[in-house]
Specification:
- This is FAD-binding FR-type domain-containing protein.
- The chain has 427 residues and is α/β, with parallel strands linked by helices.
- It has 3 domains: 205 residues, Up-down Bundle (Four Helix Bundle (Hemerythrin (Met), subunit A)); 93 residues, Translation factors (Elongation Factor Tu (Ef-tu), domain 3, Beta Barrel); 120 residues, Rossmann fold (3-Layer(aba) Sandwich).
- The protein is 51% helix and 17% strand.
- Strands 4-3-6-1-2-5 form a 6-stranded antiparallel sheet. A 5-stranded parallel sheet has the order 9-8-7-10-11, sandwiched between helices.
- Helix 2 packs antiparallel against helix 12, helix 3 packs antiparallel against helix 10 and helix 3 runs parallel beside helix 12.
Length: 427
């Protein structure tokens, strides 16, 4: 059973936290003059912080190979955590070292810029935090009309300016640039990150396939279904999400993630069901058919999660509201498995795609339980397959609080963590 745990996630954390900074620390330790021995620890902190800043920039490019291993939500969580940790180490570095002139100026500018960006990002871009603290969530809602999504994206990119300032800060320090092995690693990391970032931006804006909006319909109150005709095949799996933007419409030019409704087929048409929660999603209701769409993807691990556990035939799906969307394509594509669906919404009219679910009920291996309002834990537990702790996989989609609740419940009743999977769109 141990093989069902995602060791790739732990390995990713280990490499970023320890392996990536190691060459910088080792070369510094071997080459720093003894005259600066009182500042050795603080200098090491600065080097680690820089390595983590570069790793965060790399993760922001959404490397698809890593997404299929650990999932984009966990990738963005690592991005956020190491960014915060880098700023903390930058504080220790700044407070425990002495410098003058442009060395001090560039270091201070970088630190204060990063500190300001940290506060902004925690409020407007760290959904994993705002979903857990209601006060921060309300403050974010107050300011969202001013700091719209595109504005937040561009403000967040000031991290690149801070990183450049740190780069300049380092190359101005004579006793550090004299350590040739360190500078080789320093330049190598910096150039690789720069090339990766520039390539990713070029890829997103120029080389990824585009599509055309062929249908835009309201399927429930404040929920629109977009049908996109792709001009080129994408590597899509059931349960995936794609990033889309509308390059000809002001305010909608930055990429946004949305899940597939339909299982990917050969007709190059994908369906997205989107609730109008923010400035970007609310504007989708007015986009006319025929509008060009930029599409980047696919991303996601729902189907990959099942593929890695092909010996399990029972799948239990817990869905809430619009959180059912990525799971619809999973249910469509995995008709050979026994599926139990537990689906809730605040109102009856918010239960999406009832005709699909009714049709699947006729196929024999599918059982759906739908209701208005949340399920009581005991209701779900008594309807689970026999020996569900060992013979079932659990997929969860919905509000963050709901997903965390069901993870706790299933773990409490003996379901291993490696049998549970959910993707939180909190970024």
């Amino acid at each position: 059973m141990m093989k069902h745990y995602n060791y790739a996630l732990g390995l990713t954390w280990t490499i970023i936290l320890f392996v990536v900074p190691l060459p910088l620390i080792q070369t510094l330790a071997a080459g720093l003059p003894l005259a600066y021995s009182d500042e050795f620890q603080a200098i090491y902190f600065g080097a680690i912080a820089y390595a983590w800043m570069l790793a965060a920039i790399y993760l922001s490019t959404r490397p698809k190979w890593l997404d299929r291993l650990i999932g984009l939500p966990d990738m963005y969580l690592i991005h956020g955590v190491i960014s915060i940790a880098a700023i903390f180490l930058a504080y220790l570095h700044q407070s425990q070292t002495q410098s003058v002139g442009w060395i001090k100026t560039t270091g201070d500018w970088a630190y204060w810029l990063l500190l300001g960006l940290l506060g902004y990002s925690l409020l407007f871009m760290a959904g994993w935090l705002t979903s857990r603290i209601s006060v921060i969530k309300r403050i974010k809602a107050w300011f969202e009309p001013i700091f719209r999504h595109e504005v937040s994206v561009w403000i967040h990119r000031l991290n690149l300016v801070a990183t450049v300032l740190v780069f300049i800060h380092v190359i101005l320090i004579n006793y550090v640039t004299a350590i040739k092995p360190f500078m080789i690693w320093f330049y190598l990391y910096s150039v690789l990150t720069l090339v990766t970032y520039v390539w990713a931006k070029y890829r997103d804006s120029m080389t990824y396939p585009r599509a055309t909006l062929i249908k835009n319909t309201e399927i429930a109150e404040n929920v629109h279904e977009l049908r996109l005709k792709l001009t080129t095949n994408l590597e899509l799996l059931p349960g995936d999400f794609v990033f889309i933007s509308f390059p000809t419409i002001q305010g909608l030019k930055e990429l946004h993630p949305f899940s597939l409704v339909n299982s990917p087929t050969n007709n190059n048409v994908i369906q997205l069901a989107i609730r109008g929660d923010g400035d970007f999603t609310k504007a989708l209701a007015n986009i006319p058919e025929g509008t060009p769409v930029r599409v980047v993807g696919g991303y996601g691990r729902y189907q990959q999660f099942l593929n890695e556990r092909s010996e399990f035939t029972n799948i239990v799906i817990i869905a809430g509201g619009v959180g059912i969307v990525p799971l619809l394509s999973m249910m469509e594509a995995n008709a050979n498995r026994v599926i139990s669906l537990f689906y809730t919404a605040h109102r009856a009219e918010d239960l999406l795609y009832p005709e699909k679910i009714m049709d699947w009920q006729r196929r024999g291996k599918f059982q759906a339980y739908q209701q208005v309002g949340r399920f009581v834990d005991s209701e779900v537990l008594r309807r689970l397959p026999k020996d569900f702790q060992t013979n079932s996989l659990f997929l969860i989609g919905g509000p963050s609080g709901m997903m965390r609740h069901w993870k706790r419940v299933f773990k409490k009743y003996g379901v291993p963590a490696g049998h549970l999977y959910a993707e939180e769109f909190n970024w």
